[in-house]
Amino acid sequence: MNYRKCNPQNRLSKKHVECFLAFLARRGYLITRVDDYQLLYRVEKEDFVRYLCDLDFNTAACSRLLKDKLFTYLALEQLGIRIPTGTYFLLGDHQYSNSIEDILADLAGADYPIIIKPNDSSLGKGVTVLTRFSIEGIKRAISDVKQYSDILLVQEYLYGREYRLVAIEGEIVFAVEKHDSPRAPVQLSLSDSEAFVDIVSASMKHLGAIVCGYDLIVTDGTVSVLEINSNPFVFQIKQHLAQATLSAYFSRLEELLRRDNGNRTQT
């Protein structure tokens, strides 16, 4: 059956899932590709059978919330968790949409640098950093955002040390400090991640999340949440993690995969 275009996001998801599938194969699971683009997999071992197309273990409601950056920021703000200051504009052709003139007028008085990004994208797609007011630069940024979302976010640009961490059920599994290329990310010890524990446990509890990836920045000792991802990709940083850390992470995902029982029904 050839029914689905394999777009760039599908290919990234595939890389992410295949890291986990390789772990499961080493654990004795039989992995079968189901569709033409190898995006859907059948995972089985003894009486256990499950079909897998991504690693989002959150509920549909939680996943929808976390994929909406604006909703996530509003919730975090209510919880007293620091986020970048900013605003949003509605794009499109409807009665509530903001015109380009509206956006330009607002951003003429902004404190630069600023970040302009889509409400619904990941991996930095559609993101623009502007160091000064520029009509052409803003128009290009709006055009980039329109490729991914009909909501445009504008945020202050924060300076500081950036971190990426993944947590399961409120517990940090691993964290890395990000650096500008060519310097590679560096894995932190769990004790070095203590500054993030309260933010992670509180946000996951009240957002109803099971698995989350966090992008954080520390500025003058203050931690801000840049983004929370419902389906955190690890294939881009796995080479910077200790093998024991990666195995422990995938073991936790295996536990989640089997938790709500994928056993074959007996006839």
Q: What is the tally of helical segments?
A: 7
**What form results from the Cα inertia axes?**
globular
Structural class, by secondary structure, is alpha+beta
CATH topology of the largest domain: D-amino Acid Aminotransferase, Chain A, domain 1
SSE string, helix = H, strand = E?
HEEEHHEHEEHEEEEHEEH
List the quaternary state of the chains.
Answer: single chain
Helix content: 25-40%
Distance between the termini: 29 Å
For the largest beta-sheet, the strand count, sense and barrel status come to: 5 strands, antiparallel
Which radius of gyration do the C-alpha atoms yield? 20 Å
Mean pLDDT: 89
Question: Do you know the CATH architecture of the largest domain?
Answer: 2-Layer Sandwich
| Residue fraction in strands | 25-35%
Return the domain count: 3
Question: Could you tell me the number of beta strands?
Answer: 12
CATH class of the largest domain: Alpha Beta
Q: Widest sheet: strand order? A: 10-9-8-11-12
Query: Which residues form runs of ≥5 with pLDDT under 50?
Result: 262-267
CATH superfamily caption of the largest domain: ATP-grasp fold, B domain
